Every structure is written in structure tokens, then in C-alpha cells.
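Please fill in the sequence for the structure shown.

STRUCTURE ENCODING:
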């Protein structure tokens, strides 16, 4: 049997047609997702219901035939499993209890105590590895320590991550202890996802772009490197995708420096620049602007072809630069996939 297309790209192969999946492919732009979410009651109940979480993971695979399915869960389940309170405010986003000092870090549960809370997620992975089509790759994921910490410190999403920056500068010991705890928990969590059947894992560092210079190395690069090394030691050969979103120049060398097999790119970098500076080291993923899923038309086709063309001489997994938004048109997703798969440029 030929290996699955995503696994071939992650192994460094240049394929005639890039495999494709989409961040947030299971989400509110799909009517079938909204129906299952209503059945679950709310977002967190959906995350912790293995049958329904598996169902929403499978919906975009059935509708579009993506090359990968991404486990349906959220990066904020790890803080919850470590003892933080977590809830979602409709129309606003996540809220958590806040944490700003060493006593707060010490009150967290140990990293090996997360599995009771997260057991339903591992069950979702098991269901998916049974039910996915043979050619579809199952991707597990977690938030990167810095991004998860920004939510744990502020208790919510913040435009500039100021509370986490304040803590890392003013209480570095406590902040480093927090990063260490999240790093350990993330290794445990991803390791269990892999044991349950995840074939690839992705580390989402959505707020890496607000770290510069030595802080980027310390809080984005080093944790990704530690997680990747630990996972590969426990699960030899497991491919890792790192997503240091909006890293800019920080994308250069990020794959080799962390040991990640693939660097996911957001759309603040051009595909031509990234082909030259990032793809030269190995597989890249990305990076069509998610706004095209709202606006569609010839611009969608042109920009999709531009991304495929820019990355055609090396290993590439086609994706958006960030998650698809709830106002996207499902027809535009179909047009993007058709454009990628029919490209002969
Ligand atoms: O990509 C997928 O389809 C897999 C599932 C997935 C979700 N969240 C489901 C979700 C993944 C990989 C995530 C990652 C995630 N979650 C990140 C990193 C990636 C990124 O987008 O930058 C972050 C920062 C979070 C935290 C989070 N979860 C926020 C800020 C929000 C609210 C914003 C929003 O879109 O409403 C969520 C909620 C969330 N996570 C939804 C989904 C489908 C929407 C919830 C709903 O159904 O109402």
C-alpha cells in the first residue's frame, strides 16, 4: 500500500498535487456542524462527547474528501485538565480563571493528572482511527506552551498578550514554572493521542508572533523543540507540524531548530518568500488567506494557484494561513479544493 499523501509530504516527498486539509475544517461555517453542536448542547460538551466529537471531525471528510482529519477538541482543554476553570461566552470566546504568580502555578495539578479529564479526547481519537477512510491521515494537536499560557494568565484572549508578557518580565520564575508545567502536560497529552491512533501531531502557537528575539527562542522555539524531542523518543518516527503563527523571520530555520517535520505558515508571509527561506529545509504547510473562503470568486482561484505554484518544487501540504471563519461559504471551500487538485500550471 502506498503511504497516505500527507505522510509522504511530511517525509519530504514532492508530490504532483499537494495534499490538502483546512484549519477549523469542522466548524460553524458548516450547517451539519451547527446541528451536531446544538445536539451536544454547547462547545465544551461537544469536545468531551467522543461520539459527537468524532462525528463533527468526520463531517468535512465526507463533504469534501480532505486528505487529513484533525481531531475535534480545543487547545484550552489542557489548562482545564490542569485545574483552571474554563467556559465559553457566546459571541466573545473563551474565559478562564487567571494565574499570575508562583502560588497560582503551584496550585495546578501535576502534568500526569490530566488524563482523567482528557480521557474522552483519547476515546474520540480511537473512534476516528477506526472510522476514517484508509487514505485519510488523522492529525492530533495541542496548543504550544506560550499560546496556552497567554490564555491561562489573562483568563481570555488578548490582542497583544500583554498580561503574559508582563508576567514573563516581572515574575520570570513563576512564568518559567508555568511554561514547564504546560510543556510536560502537552507531552503527556500528545503522547496519549498518538497511542490512541493519531498519526501526526500539530503544535498550535497562535500567538508566537508577539515574541521577539531571545523571547521567541525561549518561549516559542525551545518548548516546541522539547515537545518534539520527547514525542519522537517515545514514538519513533511520529511526524510533528509546528505552527509558530506570525513568526515572520522566525520561520527561517524553525523546522531544523525544533526537529519538527513541517512548518505551518500563516498568510502574513508570501508563499514565494516562504518557498525560498523555509521550504528549503523541508515540508511546509499553508498558506492561503482564510478570507478567500468568505469572498470566493476569481481571486480565490488565482491565489490558490499562486500558493500551489510557489511551493510546487518541494514538499507541501496545502492549507489556509489560519482557521476558516464562521461566515465562510462552504461552496468556496469546494472551489479551493477543486483548484488545488486540478492545477496543471
Ligand atoms: O481545526 C479544527 O477543525 C480542529 C478543532 C480546533 C478547534 N480549536 C475547535 C474550535 C482546533 C485545532 C482549535 C485550536 C485553537 N483553539 C486555537 C489555535 C488555533 C487558532 O485558531 O489560532 C486557539 C487559540 C483556540 C482557542 C479558542 N477556541 C478560541 C479563541 C475560540 C473562540 C473563537 C471562535 O472561533 O469562536 C475557540 C472556540 C472553538 N474551538 C470553536 C471551534 C470549532 C468555535 C466554537 C463554537 O462552536 O462555538
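FILLED IN BY: designer on duty
SEQUENCE:
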Amino acid at each position: 500500500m502506498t503511504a497516505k499523501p500527507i505522510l509522504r509530504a511530511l517525509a519530504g516527498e514532492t508530490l504532483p498535487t499537494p495534499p490538502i486539509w483546512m484549519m477549523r475544517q469542522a466548524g460553524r461555517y458548516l450547517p451539519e456542524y451547527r446541528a451536531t453542536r446544538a445536539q451536544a448542547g454547547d462547545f465544551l460538551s461537544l469536545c468531551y462527547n467522543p461520539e459527537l466529537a468524532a462525528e463533527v471531525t468526520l463531517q468535512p471528510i465526507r463533504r469534501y474528501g480532505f486528505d487529513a482529519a484533525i481531531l475535534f477538541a480545543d487547545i484550552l482543554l489542557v489548562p482545564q485538565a490542569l485545574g483552571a476553570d474554563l467556559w465559553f461566552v457566546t459571541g466573545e470566546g473563551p474565559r478562564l480563571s487567571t494565574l499570575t504568580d508562583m502560588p497560582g502555578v503551584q496550585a495546578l495539578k501535576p502534568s500526569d493528572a490530566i488524563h482523567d479529564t482528557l480521557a474522552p479526547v483519547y476515546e474520540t481519537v480511537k473512534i476516528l482511527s477506526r472510522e476514517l477512510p484508509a487514505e485519510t491521515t488523522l492529525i492530533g494537536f495541542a496548543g504550544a506552551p506560550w499560546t496556552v499560557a497567554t490564555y491561562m494568565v489573562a483568563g481570555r484572549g488578548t490582542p497583544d498578550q500583554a498580561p503574559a508578557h508582563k508576567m514573563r518580565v516581572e515574575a520570570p520564575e513563576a512564568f518559567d514554572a508555568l511554561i514547564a508545567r504546560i510543556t510536560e502536560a502537552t507531552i503527556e497529552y500528545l503522547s496519549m493521542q498518538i497511542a490512541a491512533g493519531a498519526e501526526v501531531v500539530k503544535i498550535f502557537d497562535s500567538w508566537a508572533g508577539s515574541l521577539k528575539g531571545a523571547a521567541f527562542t525561549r518561549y516559542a522555539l525551545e518548548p516546541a523543540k522539547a515537545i518534539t524531542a520527547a514525542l519522537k523518543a517515545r514514538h519513533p518516527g511520529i511526524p510533528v507540524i509546528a505552527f509558530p503563527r506570525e513568526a515572520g523571520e522566525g520561520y527561517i530555520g524553525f523546522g531544523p531548530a525544533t526537529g519538527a517535520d513541517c512548518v505551518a505558515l500563516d498568510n502574513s508571509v508570501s508563499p514565494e518568500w516562504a518557498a525560498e527561506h523555509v521550504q528549503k529545509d523541508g515540508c511546509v504547510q499553508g498558506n492561503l488567506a482564510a478570507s478567500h473562503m468568505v469572498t470566493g470568486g476569481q481571486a480565490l482561484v488565482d491565489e490558490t494557484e499562486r500558493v500551489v505554484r510557489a511551493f510546487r518544487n518541494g514538499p507541501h501540504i496545502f492549507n489556509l494561513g489560519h482557521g476558516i471563519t464562521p461566515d465562510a461559504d462552504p461552496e468556496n471551500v469546494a472551489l479551493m479544493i477543486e483548484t488545488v487538485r486540478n492545477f496543471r500550471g
